[in-house]
Every structure is written in structure tokens, then in C-alpha cells.
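quick one: zinc ion bound model?
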Amino acid sequence: MPVAETLPPRIQIVEVGPRDGLQNERGVVSTATKIALIERAVSAGIRRLEVTSFVNPKRVPQMADAEAVLEGIARHPETQYVGLVLNARGLERAIAARCTEIGMAVVASDTFNRKNQGVSTEESVADWLTMAAAAKAAGLRVQVTVSAAFGCPFEGEVDPGRVVELACRVAEAGPVEVALADTIGVAVPSQVRSLVGRVAAALPGMTLRCHFHNTRNTGFANAYAALEAGATVLDASIGGIGGCPFAPAATGNIATEDLVYMLNRMGVETGIDLDQLIETSRWLESELGRPVPGALSKAGVFPKPPVAV
Ligand code: ZN
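yep, here:
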């Protein structure tokens, strides 16, 4: 296969299935299943996972067992266990539960920010700057996402200038990276190329991560465009499960196994074992009792490994 010369030789994938993937499941997913999903992902070579969120359990009941999940996992020394936090109380819980990294989100549209976290975008930016300092003082890595960066379910189009401005302001806290999220899966590749390029130009030297949902089947094209424009970290969920409880009609993330297949074939290293991912995706399907959106667990890899004679 020809190597794609416009892409980085190696990228990092953050597995977000245990949080973004499972938070929207209707049925209760047991703590044991969440722990098994995390451990399977680590065994497949994933070294960074969004394991849970420390939010109000009344608002997101699927994440009510955050502490139990972190307590139950066998820790891998080189792996980052990320907890999503939205306020000081969440940060306290994440530190107590021994997260090694926290992620925070500020939403590019004020209406969505208020629905998601109960305060204005401005207040969330201020909260982030305070929390990032506290988390760093406690020895944690910190990272931040500008959510709904490509479109808002309530306000419609989002001004790219506003996203660049927010990215620069949240970067002042000195995070390990800044992320742009297509929270509701409306982005298209030309838009991704343009916005990632603008943020990269505004924040030279900053690692950029992107988070795509495949709601309108543009997720993988967007991932490709993001890598060409300078992103070196991508979020994905095994099986392509997921959604946002506060965004109407939001569906799953791009599937980790489909993404790794695409990257492998283009010569982009991820350090992840594809066979183990596919097996985990099939296992997850049986745990959830329904088919997952990811394609590779149905279609299989290509080329098939030679049969021994
Ligand atoms: Zn998401």
C-alpha cells in the first residue's frame, strides 16, 4: 500500500467508548462490563482512554459508578486514565479516584454550554482556567476540548473565528493538547481542514486532537482531513458506540477498529492490535445486546492473513 505522505507517520488514538460511548446507552451497563471494556482496550495497545465522567449522576445516570470503575481497573503503568470533569466538584472526585489526566469541555455556543453544563461559555472558560491550575498542582495532566466546534444543535452554524478565539483562551492554561469536537456529527472535511488549520496556525507547537461523530457518515473523511491539517490525536470508540444525552439525534463516535484499519492501510502507525479490537467490538455487541455501528467487525480485515498449509 502506498504510504500517504500528507499524513503524520504515527498518531495517537484516545478510546472514548467507556465514557462518550456508554453514557447514552438506555439500558444499565454494569460496572464489570465497563471495567472489562477498558482492560480489553488497554490489552489491544490503547494507551489513553476516557474512562468516565465525574458529573451529576442525576443528569447522566450511566456514569454514576465513576469511582467504582476507576477502583476496579487493573492499571497499566504507561496508560493515561482520563476523567471528564465540568466543575470543581468533579475535579475533586477525579483526583480522589486517581485519574491520571482530566479533560474539560467548553462549548463554542452559549446555548449548548448552558444545556450541557448549566453555565455560560464564559463561565466555563473561567472554570477551566482555575481547574486546570488545581489539577496540575495535584500532578495530573490536563486537556481541554472546544465542543460543538463545527455546528450547534440549538444555534446552528458556529463562527470559526469564535472557535479559534476560544481555543487560544483555553490554551493559556498550558494543557497537553487542545481538542476540537464535532459533538453532533455535522462537520464536513473542507470545514475540518480549514478550522484545524486555523487553530494550528494560531497555536504553534500545541498538540491538536479531534473528536468526530459519524452521525452523517462524514466522520472518517473528517478524521482524514484533520490529520492532513495538523491534528495528531483522534478520539474514537470501539464499535462506534455513543452519543450525547444533551444533543438531540447525536449518534456514535467514529469506530476505533474502522479508524485503525484505515490508518494501517495508509501507513499511519497507532500501536494498536486490530484483531483484538475487532474481537472486543464483537464482545461489546453481545454485552449491549444489539449490533454496533462499526463496519470492520462485520466485514473483517483485508487482506486476510495467509492460511497455513
Ligand atoms: Zn462525543
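The pocket of zinc ion is lined by residues 20, 181, 183, 211, 213, 244, 253 (CB under 6 Å).
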